[in-house]
Hints:
The chain contains 7 helices and 18 strands. By secondary structure, it is an alpha+beta fold. A hairpin with a 4-residue loop joins strand 10 and strand 11. The longest helix has 13 residues, at 245-257.
Amino acid sequence: MSNGDCCIAHKVFSGILRSDVTCMACGFTSTTYDPCIDISLDLEPNQGVSNKMATATSNHSCNGEADCLNSSQYCGTSTLTGCLKRFTRAERLGADQKFFCRQCQVRQETLKQMSIRKLPLVSCFHIKRFEHSSTRKMSRKVDRYLQFPFSLDMSPYLSSTILRSRFGNRIFPFDGDEPDASDELCSEFELFAVVTHTGKLDAGHYVTYLRLSNRWYKCDDAWITQVDENIVRAAQCYMMFYVQKMLYYKATDKQVAS
């Protein structure tokens, strides 16, 4: 809008990502900022699992919470914190992705690193469970289990933390930098909703688990039932929603008082 206002969805879910592309020849860094309402994360690679077993399991979809948890012994286990580390790690771009360095005035190989410039009130994470390969001409669903915490500290993935780790106490300002916006909000979050997907790539069913006053409820179409938190932990998560801890407990205190 012209007056700078935005809808409630953007006020709640909108954050800012920072992308640093650094020339490996001279060290010049180009920084860009992009608004986002969710973060899409790749699952971690299989670790300690044979390719044969992983491939066999990936051809089948989980039909329930227990099946998804049991399948993790064949598919390997990813963690949400591990996925966030992969998202914010420095990545060397290939020779075919050379970046034009303004300082060198030629295309150079570069190092790219993502970080979170500003946290939203509610952080939404989308897990990439649907893979599409143009070379193999095939698509599939990834049924691997993902461990996720109920309490999440986002400070390791903030731009301020990553820059401090990269340069020590010497923070070099880049073009377009502003005072750190991440300090305005708390970096500790609480899980309050999990969306799951069961079925295959071309057909499936979505179920949502909601946390209310530290009780978990399963929302399955028109049916809402209370469930144990272990059921939520075993679910094959597709999307997760974390709210700032101070806001979560403020809301919980109001519910208890009423």
